[in-house]
Amino acid sequence: MSLRLGDTAPDFEQDSSEGKISFHEWLGDSWGVLFSHPADFTPVCTTELGLTAKLKSEFEKRNVKAIALSVDPVDSHQEWIKDINETQGCAVNFPILADQDGKVAELYDMIHPNADSTLTVRSLFVIDPNKKVRLIITYPASTGRNFNEVLRVIDSLQLTDEHKVATPGNWERGGDVVIVPSLQDEEEINRRFPKGYKKVKSYLRVTPDPTTNWGGD
Fold it and tell me: What is the pTM of this model?
């Protein structure tokens, strides 16, 4: 059965480019981004791993650890990392799991037979510090991932975990948010959102991002 949002992310132990990884222990109290690749030495994946390396500081700001996966062995990963660093102008600074036996791919339903019976699809999972799956995105092999969108969703998840709000379409950090419909007590609303709110409809109440000041960060 495939993973669903809110499920506990399966734990595993697997070799990687940075040694053996015990997944839940490695995550610790951090958020995690686990993303799979069809194979080493593939063009789209090379660009994605380079981009992830360059975004390390952005991930760290959000208490996020990134970890990639490919079905190839560790020695292949090490050679591929040299190519990634050279062609993408970066230094790969996160582990790449060596899932030769398909153990992790099976746990996370990364093999889609109608797409390819042996190679992992381009899946991405965001996992919170409680080890719960919070986001699942699967891309076709021909389409590289948008990691700005991944960061945007993590921003939304972290904000909405802390405050009783949801984020509207195309929301970005610092933008207005909406008060969740379940919150109806006016006294609590005023306490939680001292910047005020605009009532567009009874179910649509817009308020400034509660983590920022009026007019900016």
Answer: 0.90
